[in-house]
C-alpha cells in the first residue's frame, strides 16, 4: 500500500525537498529557490492511524480533511484508519511497529512520546521544521509543544489538543438559587455549590475516574492547582507521594464520601458528558474536546469556566499529536510532513476547533475571521485557550504504562475503598520509582 514518490536529487539531500512542496525554502530567515520538486508521474499512499476519544462525528471530519488534502495534492493519497480510543491506537501502533509495518503517520497522545522514543520508532521533526522558518513552531501554543520535545529535539506536532474545563448547567444554578454567571473559583466554592446542586436524580459534580488516562488526567488537575506537576521534564521521576497530592486526593474522595455530591465509586469518562447533557449532573470536569458536542446537544443554557483553584489555577493539557514513524521510505516522510502542515494550518486549525471543540493549536488560528466570528457568537470557545496560561504537560514518563497504572490504581482504591490517600499514594510512588529506576542510570 506504500506507493512511490520520485525524488529528482540524491537521497542524501532529500530533506531539501520539503521546500519543494511549497516553492521556497526557509532557513535563517533567508528565502531561496527550492532545489528540486517531487516528480509528478508517480503516486504515494500514506497510512494514517487516528483515534476518536470524544463525542461527535469526528471520523467523517477526519476523512473529509484527508480527501481535501488529496484534492490539493493529487499525487499523495491519505488512507485514514480509525483505530478506536487513544489507548487502542497506542496498542495498535506498537504492534504495527513491532511487526515491521508501522503507519506513516498517527495521532497518538502527546504523553506517549517517551513510549515511542523508547521503541526508537518515531522520526525527529527538526530538519523538517528548520525549512519552515524561525517563527513556525513559536506560533504553536507553548503549553502544547511542551509534550513534543525531549533533549532539545521535537518529535511530534500538536493537532487535536485539549485541556480540562468545568462545564456547568446554568438552569440548575437558577433552580438552586445560585447566580448562573458565577461558577466556582476555588475548591471550597466548588464543594459548597456542588452540595447545593445535588438533588434526587441529579448530582452536583462528576469528575471521571475510569482508566489510566482519565483518572490520572483528572488527578493531575488537582495536583497542579496544589503545587507542582506529577513528573520531571525528562520523564525519569514521578512525584506522586507529596503532602499536597495527598490533600488533593483527599479532596476528590471527600466530594463522594463526605459531601455525597458526586456518585460513589468510579465515574465513567465516556458517559459523563451524556449525564451532563441529560441533566443527571449539574457540573462536570471534562475535556474541551467535547465542547461542540455539548453545544449541539444540551437543551439548557450552560457555561464553561476555568477549573477552580486551590493555591493556583491549573490544568494539564491533553489530547493527540501527529507523529511520523521510522521504518518508512524517506519520500513517505516528506509527504507525511506536508500532510501534517496541512492539518495544522491556521485556517484549518480554526475550523477543526469549531467543528470539534478542541483548542486550535496555533495562536494565529484565533486571528482568522472565521474564529473571530465564532468566538464572538460563542465566547465559551475561548475558555480553554485562555486557561493555557496555567497549562502544563500531561503525565508523561518512561515506562509510562506501569507508572500511569500505579497512579490509576491508587486513585481507584482511594475512591472505592476505605484505604486513605496517604497510603495509596505511598504505594504508587514506590511502584513508579521501581518502574523508572532503569532510566535514572
Question: Could you provide a short overview of the structure?
Answer:
This protein is an alpha/beta fold. It is built from 17 helices and twelve strands.
Would you kindly provide a written description of the structure presented here, covering whatever features stand out?
- Helix 8 packs across helix 9 (about 245-255).
- A hairpin with a 2-residue loop joins strand 1 (about 25) and strand 2.
- Mean pLDDT is about 90; it is low at about 1-40.
- Strands 3, 4, 5, 8, 9, 10, 11 and 12 form an 8-stranded mixed β-sheet that branches. Strands 1-2 form a two-stranded antiparallel sheet.
- It is built from 17 helices and 12 strands.
- With about 450 residues, it is of the alpha/beta class.
- About 40% of the residues lie in helices and about 15% in strands.
- It is globular and about 65 Å long.
Amino acid at each position: 500500500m506504500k506507493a512511490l514518490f520520485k525524488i529528482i536529487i540524491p537521497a542524501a539531500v532529500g530533506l531539501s525537498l520539503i521546500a519543494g512542496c511549497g516553492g521556497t525554502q526557509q532557513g535563517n530567515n533567508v528565502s531561496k529557490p527550492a532545489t528540486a520538486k517531487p516528480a509528478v508521474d508517480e503516486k504515494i499512499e500514506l497510512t494514517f492511524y487516528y483515534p476518536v476519544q470524544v463525542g461527535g462525528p469526528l471520523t467523517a471530519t477526519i476523512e473529509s480533511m484527508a480527501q481535501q488534502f488529496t484534492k490539493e495534492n493529487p499525487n499523495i493519497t491519505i488512507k485514514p484508519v480509525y483505530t478506536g480510543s487513544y489507548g487502542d491506537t497506542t496498542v495498535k501502533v506498537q504492534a504495527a511497529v513491532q511487526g515491521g509495518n508501522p503507519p506513516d503517520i498517527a495521532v497518538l497522545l502527546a504523553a506517549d512520546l517517551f513510549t515511542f522514543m523508547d521503541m526508537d520508532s518515531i522520526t525527529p521533526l527538526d530538519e523538517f521544521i528548520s525549512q519552515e522558518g524561525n517563527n513556525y513552531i513559536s506560533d504553536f501554543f507553548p503549553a502544547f509543544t511542551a509534550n513534543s520535545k525531549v533533549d532539545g529535539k521535537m518529535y511530534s506536532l500538536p493537532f487535536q489538543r485539549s485541556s480540562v474545563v468545568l462545564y456547568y448547567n446554568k438552569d440548575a444554578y437558577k433552580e438552586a438559587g445560585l447566580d448562573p454567571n458565577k461558577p466556582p473559583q476555588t475548591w471550597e466554592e466548588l464543594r459548597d455549590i456542588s452540595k447545593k446542586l445535588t438533588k434526587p436524580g441529579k448530582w452536583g459534580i462528576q469528575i471521571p475516574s475510569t482508566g489510566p488516562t482519565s483518572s490520572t488526567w483528572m488527578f493531575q488537575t488537582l495536583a497542579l492547582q496544589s503545587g507542582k506537576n506529577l513528573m520531571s521534564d525528562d520523564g525519569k521521576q514521578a512525584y506522586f507521594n507529596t503532602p499536597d497530592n495527598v490533600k488533593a486526593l483527599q479532596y476528590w474522595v471527600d466530594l463522594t464520601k463526605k459531601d455525597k455530591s458526586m456518585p460513589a465509586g468510579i465515574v465513567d469518562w465516556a458517559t459523563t458528558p451524556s449525564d451532563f447533557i441529560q441533566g443527571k449532573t449539574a457540573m462536570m470536569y471534562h475535556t474541551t474536546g467535547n465542547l461542540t458536542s455539548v453545544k449541539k446537544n444540551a437543551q439548557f443554557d450552560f457555561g464553561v469556566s476555568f477549573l477552580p483553584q486551590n493555591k493556583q489555577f491549573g490544568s494539564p493539557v491533553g489530547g493527540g499529536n501527529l507523529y511520523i514513524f521510522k521504518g518508512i521510505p524517506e519520500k513517505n516522510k516528506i509527504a507525511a510532513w506536508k500532510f501534517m502542515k496541512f492539518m495544522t494550518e491556521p485556517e484549518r486549525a480554526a475550523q477543526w476547533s469549531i467543528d470539534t471543540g478542541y483548542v486550535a493549536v496555533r495562536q494565529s488560528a484565533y486571528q482568522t475571521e472565521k474564529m473571530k466570528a465564532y468566538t464572538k457568537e460563542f465566547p465559551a470557545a475561548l475558555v480553554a485557550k485562555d486557561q493555557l496560561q496555567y497549562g502544563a504537560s500531561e503525565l508523561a514518563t518512561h515506562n509510562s504504562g506501569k507508572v500511569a497504572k500505579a497512579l490509576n490504581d491508587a486513585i481507584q482504591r482511594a475512591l472505592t475503598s476505605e484505604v486513605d490517600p496517604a497510603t495509596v499514594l505511598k504505594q504508587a510512588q514506590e511502584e513508579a520509582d521501581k518502574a523508572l529506576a532503569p532510566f535514572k542510570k
